[in-house]
Write a structure and sequence with these properties.
The chain is of the alpha+beta class. The protein contains 13 helices and 10 strands. It has one domain.
Length: about 325
């Protein structure tokens, strides 16, 4: 695969204006001070890494912007040094360091920022499939993750690929691979029922399944302060928006608007995620902004973004 090169290179000044424009389009909160500070502190990463935008269908939420990263720099330490995160959440801060120290091949994966807030999340790649039992042994993992061992086993959630610390929500995320044997309507319905969600329609389940790449993912959200799993999410990577033969992806108007947000990419990559938990079901969309997200995820991270469901004969 040849890496695609943007016709216009990344420019911090233009990116600031594009975040502002996307925020205006979606009536999203925008802090110029926080955004300028983030772009300044991590200028070298934004200037050289894959950059993405993300939006959620919920009104009033920010535009998220992120860069993917697998280099040697300690991004959390730099964020702490520059006051982008506070040190009064030791478990959330220490969690990423523990993943890096414990699992061979683990690398830093990137940072998420919120247009109205600042640095929101730090990601770490586990280096490959790590059994949830091993991750649960880390000192900084919430007890609620350990207490869900039977739940994970019951739903075939075995291998962890990413771990994130969410400073905006004072939570953390465990990202599992979605095993092929679990990719069916019954599995989705059972997961929703066990997490007290509103029953998804058959059409929604089919839509999620039809857009799945071979490397599918299940994200889960936990807190150090609460016993339950707060949310869980199904990711459709490189979702072929507008190209699905079996069913068109249905997006709320806010996300339809977000599809038109500025980007440097001639052919941007889109990821779609459906989030469940309690009665708060919502959708989020990620859109590549700078450099080749597909190349990074496949050639550097080893992902498989082919779509088996779309390759099947009608």
């Amino acid at each position: 695969m040849q890496e695609r090169i943007d016709p216009t290179p990344y420019c911090a000044t233009q990116f600031l204006e594009d975040i502002r424009a996307a925020s205006t389009m979606l009536n999203a909160p925008f802090s110029e001070e926080a955004t300028r500070r983030a772009l300044q502190v991590f200028d070298s990463e934004f200037s050289s890494c894959v950059v993405q935008l993300k939006a959620v269908c919920k009104p009033g939420t920010g535009i998220y912007y992120r860069f993917f990263y697998n280099g040697p720099e300690d991004l959390t330490a730099r964020a702490l040094k520059n006051g982008l995160i506070e040190s009064d959440e030791p478990a959330n801060v220490q969690l990423q360091a523990e993943v890096l120290r414990t699992f061979p091949g683990a690398t830093r994966a990137g940072l998420d920022f919120d247009s109205g807030y600042g640095l929101a999340k730090v990601w770490t790649f586990t280096g490959g499939p790590v059994p949830i039992e091993q991750l649960s042994q880390l000192p900084s993992i919430p007890q609620s993750v350990r207490d869900h061992a039977e739940f994970f086993a019951r739903h075939g959630l075995r291998d962890v690929f990413f771990v994130a610390s969410d400073y905006q929500g004072s939570t953390m995320n465990v990202y599992f691979g979605w095993s092929p044997e679990c990719r069916n309507r019954e599995w989705i319905e059972r997961m929703v029922q066990e997490t007290d969600g509103a029953a998804p329609s058959p059409e929604l389940c089919d839509e999620i399944l039809a857009t799945q790449a071979a490397s599918g993912g299940v994200g889960t959200t936990f807190s150090w302060e609460r016993p339950e799993m707060l949310r869980w999410c199904l990711y459709s990577l490189e979702a072929p928006i507008g190209q699905i033969q079996s069913s068109e992806v249905t997006l709320p108007q806010r996300l339809e608007t977000f599809l038109k947000a500025p980007t440097n990419n001639l052919d941007p990559q889109f990821n779609i995620a459906w989030s469940f938990g309690g009665q708060q079901t919502y959708i989020k969309v990620e859109k590549s902004y700078a450099r080749d997200a597909t190349y990074f995820l496949t050639q550097q991270m080893g992902g498989d973004l082919s779509h088996p469901a779309l390759a099947m004969p009608a």
